[in-house]
Structure formats: C-alpha cells, structure tokens
Amino acid sequence: MTVIKPRWIVFAFSVAVASSIACGGSASLSPTGPSANGSTAVITGRVNGMSSLPVSTQSNSFAPRATTSLRVTISGTDITSTVDGSGQFTLNGVPPGNVTLQFSGSGVSASITLSGVTAGEQIHIELTLTNGGGAHVDSETRHRDDNGREVEGHITAINASARTITVGSTAVNVPDTARIHRGTTTLTFADLKVGDEVEVEGAMDGTTFRATEVKIEVDDDDDNDDLPEVKGMVTGRTGDCPALTFTVGTRVVRTTSATRFDDGCATVQNNARVEVKGTIGTDNVMTAARVELDD
Fold first, then answer.
1. d(CA 55, CA 60)
2. CB under 8 A, 24+ apart: contacts of 162-168
3. Cis peptide preceding 242, ω within 30 of 0
4. Burial of 103 (0-12, 13-18, 19+ CB in 10 A)
5. Range of the domain at 246
6. Are residues 107 and 31 in the same domain?
C-alpha cells in the first residue's frame, strides 16, 4: 500500500454519466448529484486535505478570507471547474473516450488519464497528487448500466468475520461463491491481505457491492528479491493459515498475516516443495515475506 507522506494532497472524485450538455460551459456543483442520459459524462469530485494546499487571500465587502486556487480541467477542452472551499468540484459534459484531468493551482501541477470513459458508465477514482507534480491512482470503480461494477486498487482493510474487504474507500462483500485468484492459481479469502493490489468485478445488491471475482494483481517489481531464500520440502507443518510454522531443509519458517502466498496458504502442506523468502531473526527462524510452490 502506498504510504501517504504529510506533504501529499489526497483527492477523491467520481465520474458519472449525465445528460447531454453543450460543451464549453463551466462546471457547476449540484447537491443532488449528476443525472444520467447516456451521451456524456459528469465528473464530480471532493478534495480531501484542503488545508494542505497553498492559499491566497481574497477580500470582499465583509472581510478577507483565505481560499485555495486549485482548478481541474479536461485536457483539450474548455470544461473546467474550481475546487470549492469544501473540496468539491463538478465537470459537466465530459465526452467519451480517453480523458485526461489536469490539476493546476498554487504549488500544484499534475494530471491523470482515465481510459475508455463510455456513455452509460460511472467511474469513481481515488488518487493522490504530490507537490512535485506526480499522480498516483489509489482505486478506480466503474459502474455499468447492467448494475455491474468493477473496482481496482489496493486493499486497505479486511473484515474476516463479515467477509468484506475495502479497496481504496469502497467496501466489497466477498461471498463464498466469488472466485479469488492470482493468475491461474485459485486462492481463498484467507489469502487476501491488506496492501494487495486487486481487481474486483461484481454487482450492486441494494446498497451492497458483492464481488463475483477478485483478482490479485501480479507484482512485476518484487521488493523481496534481495531477501534470504530457502527452497525445499515442507515438513513439520503446524498452525492455521496464515500463521504457520514449518521446516524447509534445516530452516524453521514462520508465516504471518503479512506473508504473501503466491499459490495460496492452503497449498503449504507437508511434502509440498516451496520457495520461501524472508528475514532471519536472532532465533534463527525465517519470517516469511513470500511463499510460493517450487516447480
């Protein structure tokens, strides 16, 4: 999971389909939210951490007041909105296709591209912008006309008893029937952990988003490459997933809720051949960062 540093500015905004609106008008805020008519989209948003933004002082007939000068614009169009004092903005008449949002203001200059914005679809994005001009998408949720929904991002919370995960700020119910996998490897709910990057497909059931599929994204940049490694057959396995203790060769290995099981925790059984990477403590026990079957 990306660590949010104090200097970062956090944005949360949503993209919703709206009625056809003539291009060229300024964006407006609506307390009731956008309406849907299938020809264009409306991007609504809320900026968290407004106090982190540089401010300017404006005066009126009553008293001076401090305001931010942040604006968001659809690149290549005159569709734009000022982020108000409560952190909200609305962009009306957004055309389908790939859409780039430009954020500009005092000390802020960054952009993010939404691919494949289509009529009849709603999109919710959570992202973080840094003062240095970078942008990072924390989660993306898409709504379809058939009540389907997709969400991508990192798991920020897990409630095992309720079988729910939170992706960004979106709560997702993961029933027993949902397929959970990494690539072609089938996993279980117990294999999910905070920090995993996932892509979830499902549908709304009333106000509840129920998953039909949870795909754990494969991380091509493995931060564990430089850790000590042990390979061999599992013996002496004890404990319950994800907290296991077993021996590989002469090395005692311990797993925790932070361990990444590439092929699922349940596959770590006696006589299975595994590859383990982790850190070795003063007790000479390896605490596993990653466990995978060794082919």
1. 16
2. 163/189, 165/192, 165/198, 165/200, 165/214, 167/139, 167/141, 167/198, 167/200, 168/126, 168/138, 168/139, 168/141
3. yes
4. buried
5. 229-293
6. yes
Token pair of 156 as six digits:
């920020």
4 part of a folded domain: no
As for how many domains the chain has, the answer is 3
pLDDT tens readout for residues 194-243: 888 899 999 888 888 999 999 998 765 555 667 889 999 999 999 998 89
Q: Does residue 286 form part of some domain? A: yes
Both structure tokens of 264 = 């699922």
Do 243 and 265 lie in a common domain? yes
Among 88, 121, 143, residue at a domain's last position? 143
**One-letter identity of residue 190:** A
Q: What is the amino acid identity at position 47?
A: V
SS3 51: helix
Q: pLDDT value at position 214?
A: 95
Q: Do 176 and 279 have their domain in common?
A: no
Nearest alpha-carbon partner for 102 in 88, 113, 118 = 113
Cβ-based burial of 98 (10 A; exposed 0-12, middle 13-18, buried ≥19): exposed
Nearest to 92 by CA among 12, 47, 33: 33
φ/ψ of 200, rounded to 5, equals: -115, 135
Contact 168, 149 (CB under 8 A): no
Mapped onto helix, strand or coil, the DSSP state of residue 289 is: strand
Instruction: Tell me: do 14 and 138 sit in the same domain.
Output: yes
* 155 in the same domain as 138: no
